[in-house]
Amino acid sequence: CYILRKINLARKIITMTVSQKIKLALTDSILNALALALIFTWILSYPMHGPFLEEIFGPKAYILGHVFTFCHGLGLFVFAFLPPSISSEKRIVTFTGSIICALTCIWTFFPSVNPYIISGILGLISAYLVLAWVPVFLNEENPVITIGLAMTAANLLLGLAGFTHFLSYPFIKIVASFTGLAPLLGALNISNKHLTSNLTNEEPGRINKTGIILSVIAFSAAAYFSGGLWFRVIMPLFYSRWPEVIGLDSFIYAVFYFALALYARKFSYIWLGPVALSLLGLGLATVIIGLDRPVETIITLLLLIAGLCATDLYYWLTLRGLTKMLNCRKVFGLGLGVSLFFITAPGIALDVQLLPSPLSSSTTAVFGACLLFIINPLIIWFLRPLQQYEQDKNVSLNNFDEKNRGGNDVKAGDDKLDREIPAFWYDLTNTEKKVYELIYNGCTDSEISEKLVISRHTVKFHVRNILRKSGTSNRKELLQIVKASK
Prior knowledge:
Layout: H1 2-15, H2 18-45, H3 51-57, H4 61-79, H5 84-87, H6 90-109, H7 115-138, H8 143-161, H9 169-178, H10 181-191, H11 209-241, H12 248-266, H13 272-289, H14 294-326, H15 330-351, H16 362-382, H17 384-405, H18 430-440, H19 445-452, H20 456-470, H21 475-484
């Protein structure tokens, strides 16, 4: 078995090129994005105030949507505290997708069954399905592309769902029931993944956890509450003038989201937070001019959509970074739950008339815009540790790629620089890549511990993982295989 394992590893190193590994990684990212896109398409097009909900249930739609949203947020909070053995159990994930599919059909075709109970159940169990996707996202090598493709695809499908008002009522019910297949397919994709989140017991260092957490909450409150409030007000005004283009906002959202994801992939997503708040602030400021003319309404809508796109992308990637930096699995569930509260609170306040329409008061617009611009520098200040973490995380990979591309400072024949990327490199976590580079450069466990500011116990943990993934039993064998791949 030992010999066969060595032969199989050698075959992989010889036959699988770097381009093939990249192609496989991109294919996997696309499938991971598709899983979340299917889940979110169902959520946004049906139970959470989607067009199917309004077409089928009529006046009940707003109440049903609020019930679903409340239970979904509650589920995110509750399931965030589940142990990994339950939150990542593949059989539970598949069963959850099947139940959602079945309840969606019952909800659509049997109105005599209490729709509010079904809406609440769907909200709860769909929260589990979203959090089950999180370990897949944490293991992603291309997280920006994955979340970008997921939200782009979801909004393209949501835009198509906006044209359901052209369909007959019986056909709408058939199409709405088939949306239940989307979370089922997403669950099947998730259940085929390796659902461990690769979190370790590393100490995050001396950081202001309270400041970071409060900054994330403040960002969520400022961006999602103000963005959700004005989006809820502007959209009816926009579609009252152009009812024939219902669903256009979803297509615009998809274009903006994908463009921002590509730019963030090339540079960094950290800047998206300030950009999101600035765009939303400009969107609110345009209301001061007035929305009597169509061009003003269109400009305001574009600014708000772009701001919400930047907000969503930044928030997902920030939660991912915080989860890894703080080594805490609860971050995603609690963070998504908080954002959901601030997204839906404006709609509830407007529906029950706790808040007047902000279009009737320019003072509200000025105050909201100023608040966003004031919070902006505070967000930048308190989230500096996250930015530093992201920069440090990419140092090892960037150095490795630079060495293999070759540069002016690379000497021919230098054994430590002139080498191929090993096949198992893409299976390592970011921390394991740093440890591997230091091992290759001859560092001991103590030296690695000092350089990465982690304990020796944590270093040994990473070394064991590297040896296991490379199919070797000690460091000497590891270096021999890497040198043999040149």
